[in-house]
Amino acid sequence: MGEVAEPERPAVPLLEARGLEKHYGSVQALDGASFSAYPGEVVALIGDNGAGKSTLVKTLSGVIRPDRGQILISGNPVSLSSPLDARAHGIETVYQDLALAPDLDAAANLHLGREIYRWWPPLHVLNKPEMRRRAVAAFADLGVELPDVTAPVATLSGGQRQSVAVARAVSYASRIIFMDEPTAALGVVQRERVLDNIRRVRDRGITVVLISHNMPEVLAVADRVEVLRMGRRVARFIAAETTIEQLVGAMTGALTTEEESA
Amino acid sequence: MTRLAPDVPARAMARSPLVVRRALSAGETWVFAALIILMAIFTGLAPGKFLTLNNLSLNAQTAAPFLLMAVGETFVILTAGIDLSVGFVLVLCGVVAGEFYLSNGGPDASVGTIWVGAILGLLTGAAFGALQGFAVAKLKIPPLIATLMGLGVAEGLSYLITGGSDVRAVPNTLVSSIGTGYFAGVQWVIIISFLVTLVFGLILAYTRFGRYTYAIGSNPEAARRAGVNVDWHLIKVYSLSGLMAGIAGIVNLAYFGTTTISAHPLDNLTVITAVVIGGASLFGGRGSMLGTFIGVFIPVLLLSGLNIVGVNQYWQYILTGLVLGAAVYLDQIRRRLRERA
Question: Fewer CB within 10 A of the terminal residue: chain B, N end or C end?
Answer without folding.
Answer: C
